[in-house]
Amino acid sequence: MDEKEIRYAQDALYVLSGKWRMPVILALHNGLRRYREIAQSIPGITFSMLSKELQIMELNNLVLRMEDPDFPKHVEYKLTEYCESLYPIVESLVNWGREHRKVIST
Amino acid sequence: MDEKEIRYAQDALYVLSGKWRMPVILALHNGLRRYREIAQSIPGITFSMLSKELQIMELNNLVLRMEDPDFPKHVEYKLTEYCESLYPIVESLVNWGREHRKVIST
């Protein structure tokens, strides 16, 4: 593994970092699509934090924003395939983190 | 996946975060043990940054510091098994990051 590969890993880490990034990825992965239901599923997040997070994710090709042509107010969000491909890493982080808690609490 | 699991994932992310954490994990994983050779393998790191990083990693049970009883100055470092168990996640981050670069550069 060389310097270039370390940068790749740090890129991926960056995409997953941030207080709300993984909770939003999880909510969308679990099939929540509407703004209000996503917000309600994430304890502590405010509407403005969620809207900023979704904007950043859209810019970074992690989320698709879909407007209903007949009902412009009716907006839905969906993870891009590209972002879904992160999900196995999120699961491996969860598993490692669970073990981590056991190690540091013994 | 619930809130508790998100915290596990964020714990794991935290362990991997920081400019020098993955480069140091990689150097030790690749078998480098002595302070000078670790520092020389990581472009841009200074001795004081490395020593701070190794101290934090030792405190967090990620690194073992081994002194030679006959030669106290002769210190070696080694990843703990616990930290080695992170290595597959680092590799999956590298792979995803490599693809990520292709996506954002097309």
From TrEMBL, chains A, B:
GO MF terms held by the record: DNA binding
Alphabetized Pfam families for the sequence: HxlR
PROSITE patterns: HTH_HXLR
Classification via InterPro entries: HTH_HxlR, WH-like_DNA-bd_sf, WH_DNA-bd_sf
Superkingdom field: Bacteria
Keywords: DNA-binding, Transcription, Transcription regulation
Keyword Transcription regulation: yes
Domain HTH hxlR-type intervals: 4-105
Transcription is among the record's keywords: yes
Protein name, entry field: Transcriptional regulator
Organism (species): Chitinophaga silvisoli
